[in-house]
Amino acid sequence: MRTFIALAANPDYPTLEDFGKDPIWISIIKAVGIFVLLMLGVLFGVWFERKLISRMQHRYGPNRAGKFGLLQSVADGLKMALKEDIFPRTVDKVLYFLSPVIIAVPAFLAFSIVPFGPMVTMFGERTPLQLTDLPVAVLLVLALASIGVYGIVLAGWASRSPYAVLGGLRSAAQVVSYEIAMALSFVAVFLVAGTLSTSEIVRAQSVGGTVSLFGMEFSTPSWFVIQLIPSFLIYVICMLGETNRVPFDLPEGEGELVGGFHTEYSSSLKFAMFMLAEYVNIFTVSALAITLFFGGWQAPWPISLWDGANTGYWPFLWFLLKMVIVFSFFVWVRASLPRIRYDQLMAFGWKVLIPLNLGWILLFATFRALRIDEGNRTLIMTMLAFVVLACFLIYMRFDIVAQRRKREQEAEVAAEFEELGNAPEAGGFPVPPLDLPHYHGVQRKEVSSGTH
Amino acid sequence: MGETITFWVLAVVSVSAALGLVFSRKAVYSALMLGAVMLSLAVLYAVQDAPFLAAVQIIVYTGAVMMLFLFVLMLVGVDSSDSLVETIRGQRLWAMIAGLGFAVLVALAVGNLVVAPPTGLAGATQGAGGNVPAIAELIFTRHVFAFEVASALLITAALAAMVLAHRERSRPKPTQKVLARARFLSDHPSPLPGPGTYARNNAVDMPALLPDGSISELSVNRVIARHEAEEGGLPEDPKLAEAIRQAVEEESK
Predict the structure, then answer these.
(1) Any idea what DSSP says for residue B191?
(2) What is the structure's pLDDT at A3?
(3) How far does the CA of residue A90 sit from the closest CA of chain B (Å)?
(4) How confident is the model at residue A39 (pLDDT cuts 50, 70, 90)?
(5) Distance from CA of A427 to the nearest CA of B (A)
(6) Would you call A274 helix, strand, or coil by DSSP?
(7) Do A309 and A221 meet the contact criterion of CB atoms below 8 Å apart?
(8) What CATH number should be reported for the domain whose range is B1-78+152-163?
(9) Contact between chains at A95 and B28 (C-beta distance less than 8 A)
(10) Strand pairing partners for A127?
(11) What's the pLDDT tens digit per position in A254-289?
(12) B12 pLDDT band (50/70/90 cuts)?
């Protein structure tokens, strides 16, 4: 598994000390760069999503405005900007106006800690290709996501419409619950990387560690996605829930709630802000997935054989390629899965994702402790055995009950079938007589569909 | 320099938000003002080189606690007004005592600074190697008992709320299977005809027409039918009037 390790000549990994030393104009260039990148990303992301999902559904998608319909989103954006800005009469004016802003600003802010590349030379200044970094950078993303929820909730409340209020409530409950599972799936990454700063997490994924099993040395792969696959899978589910995407897009389930929290934002720049924030949030969680699990900006295997792969501005390209792949995954999921029910969503988040995650963290921490702490091995093993035994007993208890319940149900169904079959009138159910002429009598065996 | 500017800007913001919290008439605005105060505090922590505290302040207080407040306010309803009756006996007295206690705590904390020279941030976090590890070390070694007790208290509170709000069902919840069975045992396994089926009009007061042109009595709206029969406003169409009369009769049966 050495192949995942970047073989390129030492890339210049930034450390936390490299941040906060930029001259102000470099910071401004970076901030504007991120803003432009995100705006263009939304414009062409919408186009890309529509084009890709069309192909998955055997149609062409937008192909009128510009070559390949590339300007479709531009046209849509212009239309939104030129439409009349409607304030419904009963809304709470201040909050109705503020909530699109509250939802959009944190979405953009979260991108400031995403590492796009190593140390580069920008107009003669050596600087990391990342706006800023903090000792708690990943927590900052969670904090900004929780501020973004305010936009949704207040949009629902300020609209003074039942659909919007219900959409806002659903969304708040959903995002808050999935944020817990999401934060838990970061814990294993923090345990391995030993830091919460994004640039150092990327650095921690440059070289795999070694594990000694039965006296032999094995090198572990460097990207966390392999080492921490349970965390990654849970994160993937949570990122769909956190961004209100299919199959978890219940806040705007149009079958039940018209447009959900943005029902009253018919079509204007305010609606465009919601749209913008939704896509920027998708980009943020994708960027976080890449940074935490897919080696950040580091080149993937075949490219990493080339010496210059991880130097200069090249990593920016690898990062964008990974972004495109993760975004395509979002589209693929949207094209494949139906929306789930709200109680299923909540039960899945609280009863499956969070306990699974806690169990995995416990297991992983135990393995880490076994590797670090040579002295207390007996204690750790005893505790591990105790926990495993307890889990097994709990599982057995639930399994016995579930099996008994299943048997009971089967017996009940069989008894009822027997009873209804013997009853002259089929128990009062409207069953047609089976000897009607067009049934060819009861003697002839019915031909079911699918056998011919 | 930057810290001073941030402090004065945030001082204005947070004090005016706190005043707004006390004086605003709508509960949702008060909650939002509290959120603004919390955010200002978080920024102040960040400026004071406490990034972990800042992030946790936003995640826990602004993200979870305030969101819960807003959630409750939204569930209670948009236009419900607050009740100004104090239900807790001696609330003001206890509030005053708690306020005084808090003031004493703050005074002691600040007084500590006067008595002994401060360690300084660098000195406090040096041993552990950074801000986050230093907090982690304190929480999981020296204050581990207090930490666990606090979490146990929170879980107890959550469980208590659930137990208090829990209500046993008096009869089992009808499942999809039970409902379907009841429907098929009734007279109408299929849905009732909606108003306007086969009709030239889809208004709710127009009954559905069956394929042979007769009126489906099932589709006559009971409320409208009773109203029209009582007020004497039966329509001219004899077929429709008959259907409405029959619907009212069936209703009164």
Answers:
(1) P
(2) 40
(3) 12
(4) very high
(5) 9
(6) helix
(7) no
(8) 1.20.120.1200
(9) yes
(10) A120
(11) 667 777 788 888 768 888 888 899 899 999 999 999
(12) very high
Q: How far does the CA of residue B194 sit from the closest CA of chain A (Å)?
A: 19
Compute CA distances B75 → A157, A168, A251, B32, whole Å. Answer: 10, 11, 16, 16
Burial profile A63-77: b = 16 or more Cβ within 10 angstroms, e = fewer: eeeeeebbbbbeebb
- What residues of A are in contact with residue B55 (Cβ under 8 Å)? 136, 139-140, 142-143
Radius of gyration, alpha carbons of chain B: 33
The answer on pLDDT for A76 being more than 60 is yes
Least confident range from A6-10, A95-99, B51-55, B106-110: namely: A6-10
Query: Among all chains, which residue has been given the structure tokens 């009954």?
Result: B207
CA distances from A49 to A44, A108, A139 (A): 8, 20, 29
For A147, the closest chain B residue by CA position comes to B63
Q: Is pLDDT of B84 > 80?
A: no
Task: Return the SS3 of B215.
Answer: strand
C-alpha to C-alpha distance for A339 and A345, rounded to whole angstroms: 10
- Select from B35, B39, B132 the Cβ nearest to the Cβ of A136: B132
- Rg of chain A over Cα atoms, rounded to whole angstroms, equals 28
Cβ neighbors of A273 (< 8 A, separation 6 or more) are: A100, A101, A103, A104
* Euclidean distance between CA atoms A180 and B59, whole angstroms: 10
pLDDT grade for B201, boundaries at 50, 70 and 90: low
Query: Which residue in B58, B74, B184 is closest to A147 by CB distance?
Result: B58
Q: Which two tokens stand for residue B106?
A: 């703050």
| Chain A residues touching residue B71 (CB < 8 angstroms) | 153, 169, 172-173
List, for residues A101-150, the tens digit of each pLDDT value: 988 999 999 999 999 888 888 888 888 888 888 888 899 998 888 888 88
More confident residue, A297 or B239: A297
For A135, other C-beta atoms within 10 Å of its C-beta total: 18
Residues A172, B189: C-beta atoms closer than 8 Å: no
Mutate to test the interface with A, among B3, B47, B48, B78 (most CBs of A within 10 A): B78
Contact B75, A169 (CB under 8 A): yes
Average pLDDT, rounded, for chain A = 83
Asked, as a colleague might, if the bond just before A247 is cis with ω within 30 of 0, I would say yes
- Which tens digit of pLDDT belongs to each residue from A193-239? 888 889 888 888 887 666 666 666 666 667 888 888 899 999 999 99
pLDDT of residue A208: 67
Structure tokens at B223: 């409320």
Give this prediction's pTM.
0.78
The residues that bridge with A216 in the sheet, in sequence order, are A213
Pairwise CA distance, residues A81 & A214, whole Å: 66
- Alpha carbon of A243 to those of A60, A88, A141, A185, A267: distances in Å? 27, 27, 13, 16, 21
Cα angle B163-B167-B170, degrees, rounded to a multiple of 5: 150
pLDDT band at residue A324 using 50, 70 and 90 as cut-offs: very high
SS3 for A203-248 is: HHCCCCCEEEECCEEEECCCCHHHHCHHHHHHHHHHHHHHCCCCCC
Is the pLDDT at A165 greater than 90? The verdict is no
**Residue ranges of chain B assigned to CATH 1.20.120.1200:** 1-78+152-163
> pLDDT exceeding 90 applies to what percent of chain A?
24
